[in-house]
Specification:
358 residues, alpha/beta, Rossmann fold, seven-stranded parallel β-sheet, two-stranded parallel sheet, 10 helices, 13 strands, 34% helix, binds nicotinamide-adenine-dinucleotide
Length: 358
């Protein structure tokens, strides 16, 4: 069934098999859980965040169709798949800066955790779709732009490696055991409840307080999506007939390429701020990085059309950060992590300058 936006819909109140959402307490997972419950799905949300700290699911905890499972991916068992026709796998150590400091931990969570889940899925037998959340970090310097789904995995940092290795595991288990895999790859996803460590959040937060925006590098590019657009694509993939999507990968993005220097200016403007923009050196592996994904396959097969432009996504996210800054300032303070070994040059309001790393 389709609605007049071309999106698949489900009749209200229809009984569905449950969807297992891993990483349910996180940014993307909690948005997906909420949307699935609204559509009438039964949902199991798995995460290592203790229930009492799963703030993003506070209202869902008592929902009759929701069950929270406080458990690590690494300990999931085949029997845990019973009654679930779809696994939406979003759990990950998703912070790139942490991956530089803790690459082994990141690999353990992202690769070993994914393999544990794949083993449970293939031994459990009930799952008709296993959907993997891929990252733009799996591609460092693209061979062509915009990248389409045939582009090879070319990670340039430890986080990208862990996500690419996990994706390779997904396709290996698909080929070896017939795990019904689907991959959805996205660039940067922003919106309400995004992680505080992501650069766009830090820039908006600092700009709102008149503090400098610190840009690591500047000329590398990003393909930015709004969370509602990404969740819409996940819903379409969940609702699509397995024969249409299993074995397929889709990029879900705006399709537009913007330098991070440009994104920094948008953040400052959206915050209505005159904050200075400072440049420090690139993160390892980031110089020369570009990111833009083709939206063609997602549009053709899933019927997914992104509705929010990257600039509008920044503006909508700024609105949320403003609310947060006004109502719960103590919870929103991002950790300041300017690289210790790089020169920082403070310039006047509105200026953007290049500063060489030392
Ligand atoms: N946010 C983005 O910009 C973006 C872009 C592309 C891809 N992704 C991918 O989307 C997914 C969700 O990202 P997010 O931004 O919501 O991150 P997030 O950190 O907010 O959520 C991830 C959740 O996974 C949980 N988790 C981590 N390890 C686990 C384990 N071993 N067992 C159970 N739970 C575990 C965490 O506790 C957290 O709640 C990730 O796979 C990430 O790689 C995110």
């Amino acid at each position: 069934m389709s609605n007049n936006n071309g999106h698949h819909t489900l009749p209200a109140g229809e009984a569905h098999d449950a969807v297992l959402v891993t990483g349910a307490a996180g940014f993307g997972g909690s948005h997906l859980v909420r949307s699935l419950l609204k559509l009438g799905y039964r949902v199991t949300g798995l995460d290592i965040v203790p229930p009492s700290h799963a703030d993003l699911l506070r209202r869902e905890m008592d929902h009759p169709n929701f069950r929270y499972r406080w458990q690590s991916l690494q300990d999931i068992q085949p029997g845990d798949m019973d009654g679930h026709s779809v696994v939406a796998h979003l759990a990950a150590q998703a912070d790139t800066p942490l991956a530089f400091e803790s690459p082994r931990y990141t690999v353990m969570q992202n690769v070993e955790g994914t393999v544990a889940l794949l083993e449970a899925v293939r031994r459990g037998g009930a799952v008709k779709k296993f959907i993997y959340s891929g990252s733009g970090n799996e591609y460092g310097r693209p061979l062509s732009l915009p990248m389409d789904e045939t582009h090879p995995l070319t990670p340039h940092n430890p986080y990208g490696f862990s996500k690419a290795a996990a994706e390779l595991a997904v396709w290996s288990w698909h080929r070896a055991y017939g795990v019904p895999a689907v991959a959805l790859g996205t660039g940067v996803v922003i919106g309400p409840h995004m992680r505080r460590e992501v650069f766009i959040f830090k820039w908006l937060w600092n700009a709102l307080r008149g503090r400098p925006i610190v840009v690591e590098g500047g000329q590398q590019t990003r393909d930015v999506s709004y969370i509602d657009d990404v969740v819409a694509a996940w819903l379409l993939a969940i609702q699509a007939p397995p024969e249409v999507v299993v074995g397929e990968k889709f990029f879900v993005s705006s399709g537009a390429e913007h330098t991070v220097a440009e994104l920094a200016r948008w953040c400052r403007d959206a915050a209505g701020s005159q904050a200075a923009i400072e440049r420090v050196g690139y993160r390892p592996g980031e110089e020369g990085q570009r990111e833009a994904f083709s939206t063609e396959k997602a549009r053709r097969v899933l019927g997914h059309v992104p509705r929010v432009s990257p600039k509008e996504a920044v503006r909508l996210t700024a609105d949320w950060v403003k609310t947060l800054a006004e109502t719960r300032p103590e919870e929103a303070e991002p950790v300041a992590i300017p690289p210790q070994d790089q020169a920082v040059q403070v310039v006047g309001p509105g200026e953007v300058v290049n500063v060489q790393s030392v």
